[in-house]
């Protein structure tokens, strides 16, 4: 890998994605500095071997981070205005402070412990470089966990350049550690907007963010998608583990770090009983909270009932609840009218999409006073003295206020790495200019790489059983429509 550019001058980019192959042109805001020559050479196919083949299977049917542990208030100079060199005298990076590299390296090493599948991929790829010659540009959160992904891609033979998609989630010390390793970056979706000709040299796109995937489908529908793209957001391992288990683990962490409140016996309403809502409800129920659920979909609503939650309309409980959590991916689920009716001290937060689920803008009116009581916690005070506790200004609570379990990120990062290997090594014609889901077998492979961590012993089908079920003994074990 070459260098990293964390976009720390205030730019934020929506897409968490990666693009195979390197652009040749320099653009204004994305610096390909002095050492870009090597990166910009044409790739060779030498060195791609059996690892890719063993996991590749054609299929056409087929979000995360904790904020930096480093105080960012110490130096407000934009990284673009700083001249920095790493220990090898390279300046081919744009990061906050190269002196934090050792600290960042320790963070990466800690993350490696909880990302067994990526480490297994590195081990299995010894001598085999399924990404040899691949040039990968990525735009993701820059965290210890994504650093493990980048370094895995490099270990598999790729040359990588990377950019941060969000300054608030960037772990500056990790960016420094990557830059010290002379590793690094650029970002992706700008290519389409600013340099569409580069698509001639790009082999494929791997996209994990909801917004990015949505944009890819729009492009495809309009006939404007010029290269194959993998939608890893909708792979089973992403949906189940990132949405359900990640939120189950991180909801209480986010709530407790910000409020120090005891949740046993508290009345909580969770809006939306999809994967994220199910995770939040499970954690709060286990903590002894009284949990109500709102839903628009009768199937998810029935699931909530069968799981022992009271299904209500938000209006019915809004006056009595202690906590309101949105998990719908929708907008204006909690309106100003709801906020007006909440009781004093009600905690309001969002685990779903961006900051649209709670109508935070409606609280910016002259009669209401905002008081910042601690980082990411605002008291919004009504003229009669009632105050509500708004967390992270309605942005994602767990991404803003807690850490996200590395093991979960290991699953999604492995999915990304395998998607890149698949796209890069697929024979000509397997993938057209369209959006694809990951082959089922690859999803299963990602899961199987994580099983040894639990000392889990998987049962193997006998020949007779495989025949009876009409399955290949090595998978895939479920049809693509199976819902898990
Ligand atoms: N916080 C995180 O770490 C995290 C992780 C993954 C996904 N997400 C985001 O969380 C959101 C939900 O993801 P998901 O996987 O649970 O999606 P999902 O589609 O499985 O669930 C959303 C649920 O909300 C319901 N819903 C929609 N509008 C509603 C309304 N007005 N009132 C009540 N219920 C309503 C839907 O019927 C659906 O069942 C998405 O925006 C996703 O991007 C957050």
UniProtKB/TrEMBL annotation:
Compositional bias of kind Low complexity: 52-71
Biased composition (Basic residues): 42-51
A GO biological-process term: one-carbon metabolic process
Named cofactor requirement(s): NAD(+)
SMART domains: AdoHcyase, AdoHcyase_NAD
Residues bound to substrate: 143, 183, 208, 238, 242
Record's cofactor remark: Binds 1 NAD(+) per subunit.
Region: Disordered, residue numbers: 1-20, 26-91
Database matches in PROSITE patterns: ADOHCYASE_1, ADOHCYASE_2
Pfam families from the UniProt entry: AdoHcyase (PF05221), AdoHcyase_NAD (PF00670)
Domain S-adenosyl-L-homocysteine hydrolase NAD binding: 243-404
Highest taxon in the source lineage: Eukaryota
Xref: PANTHER family: ADENOSYLHOMOCYSTEINASE (PTHR23420), ADENOSYLHOMOCYSTEINASE 3 (PTHR23420:SF2)
Name this protein carries in UniProt: S-adenosyl-L-homocysteine hydrolase NAD binding domain-containing protein
Gene source species: Scyliorhinus torazame (Cloudy catshark)
């Amino acid at each position: 890998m070459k260098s990293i550019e964390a976009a720390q001058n205030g730019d934020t980019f929506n897409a968490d994605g990666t693009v195979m192959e390197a652009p040749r042109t320099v653009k204004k805001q994305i610096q390909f500095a002095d050492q870009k020559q090597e990166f910009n050479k044409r790739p060779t196919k030498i060195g791609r071997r059996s690892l890719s083949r063993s996991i590749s299977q054609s299929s056409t049917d087929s979000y995360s981070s904790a904020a930096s542990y480093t105080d960012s208030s110490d130096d407000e100079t934009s990284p673009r205005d700083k001249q920095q060199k790493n220990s090898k005298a390279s300046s081919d990076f744009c990061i906050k402070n190269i002196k934090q590299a050792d600290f960042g390296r320790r963070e990466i090493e800690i993350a490696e412990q909880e990302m067994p599948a990526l480490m297994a991929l590195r081990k299995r790829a010894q001598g085999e470089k399924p990404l040899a010659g691949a040039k990968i540009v990525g735009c993701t959160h820059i965290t210890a966990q994504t650093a493990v992904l980048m370094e895995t891609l490099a270990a598999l033979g790729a040359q990588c350049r990377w950019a941060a998609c969000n300054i608030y989630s960037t772990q500056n010390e990790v960016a420094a550690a990557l830059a010290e390793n002379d590793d690094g970056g650029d970002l992706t979706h700008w290519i389409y907007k600013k340099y569409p000709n580069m698509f001639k040299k790009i082999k494929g796109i791997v996209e994990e963010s909801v917004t990015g995937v949505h944009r890819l489908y729009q492009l495809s529908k309009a006939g404007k998608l010029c290269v194959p793209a993998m939608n890893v957001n909708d792979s089973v391992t992403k949906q189940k583990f990132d949405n359900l288990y990640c939120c189950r683990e991180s909801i209480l962490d986010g709530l407790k770090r910000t409020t120090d409140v005891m949740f046993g016996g508290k009345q909580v309403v969770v809006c939306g009983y999809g994967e994220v809502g199910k995770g939040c409800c499970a954690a709060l129920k286990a903590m002894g909270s009284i949990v109500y659920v709102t839903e628009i979909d009768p199937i998810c609503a029935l699931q909530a009932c069968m799981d022992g939650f009271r299904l209500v309309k938000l209006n019915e409980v809004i006056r009595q609840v202690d906590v309101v959590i949105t998990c719908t991916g929708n907008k204006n689920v909690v309106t100003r009218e709801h906020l007006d009716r909440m009781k004093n001290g009600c905690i309001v937060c969002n685990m779903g999409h961006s900051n649209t689920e709670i109508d935070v803008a409606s609280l910016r009116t002259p009669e209401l006073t905002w008081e910042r009581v601690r980082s990411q916690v605002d008291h919004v005070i009504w003229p009669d003295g009632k105050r509500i506790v708004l967390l992270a200004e309605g942005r994602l609570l767990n991404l803003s206020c807690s850490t996200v379990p590395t093991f979960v990120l290991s699953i999604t990062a492995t999915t990304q790495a395998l998607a890149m290997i698949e796209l890069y090594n697929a024979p000509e014609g397997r993938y057209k200019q369209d959006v694809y889901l990951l082959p089922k077998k690859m999803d299963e492979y990602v899961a199987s790489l994580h099983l040894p961590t639990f000392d889990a012993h998987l049962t193997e089908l006998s020949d007779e059983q495989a025949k009876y079920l009409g399955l290949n003994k090595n998978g895939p074990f479920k049809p693509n429509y199976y819902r898990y």
